[in-house]
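Action item from last week, closing it out:
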Amino acid sequence: MIEILKSVFLGIVQGLTEFLPVSSSGHLNIMPWLFKWDNISESFDLALHAGTLLAILIYFYKDWIALIGGGVKMVAKKEKSTEGKIFWYIVAATVPAGVLGLILEKVIEFIVGDNLNLEMIIIAAALIIMGIILYLVDKRCKADVAFGDITFKKALLIGASQAIAAAIPGTSRSGITMTVSRSLGLDRESAAKFSFLLSAPIVAAAVLLSIGEFAFSVEFFAGVLASFVSGMLVIKFLMSYLKKGSYKIFAVYRVIFGLFIIITAIIRI
């Protein structure tokens, strides 16, 4: 029962932090460390991501149908559309993120090694630094580019930024893509939507490549279900909140939580 509760807790953490710009990978590394649990396996981490991937696919299912349909028509019938354009932008933007992410991830792994406290400090530093950048960018940049007006150049820049998040836990994939989107003039709601849709191909590829390693059990399904349900609720909340709200609250949380982790890591040294 305890293991099931742990899985549900971690699933909820994944669902809450995958879509808010606060870093799900950072939190999934931090929580076991804070509570002195065993680190979660890479396969279970990806299983939890499968739950939030399902949330993206279901919540935006109408958009996916339109995007895929538009993309197919652009190739098969030469019919141009906003949906088709965005679909191929997402495909193109996924490539640099995947390649750069793998390279940077190996570099960070070499630097950090097995030093868990150092890893926590790096995560905390990433939380704080990206929190400050997110706040400044969101406050100062214009919001005059809608979802349908995203250009190929903007899509590539936003997509490439995912590589940094893949390499450095604590950066936050959604956090950095939303930050770059805002710096390029996207309004807050469009920045979030494009960020969510852009994450799907990379997460789906990682899940499919690792599905043979999944340890299917009650704990497994409990965690996946928890991440899916909490993810759906968070997407709904954030898309509604960003119609009028800003990213300030998330930036402040990142800084406070990051400082807490640094202090805890120093105490444990």
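Closing note: Residues 2-268 form one domain.
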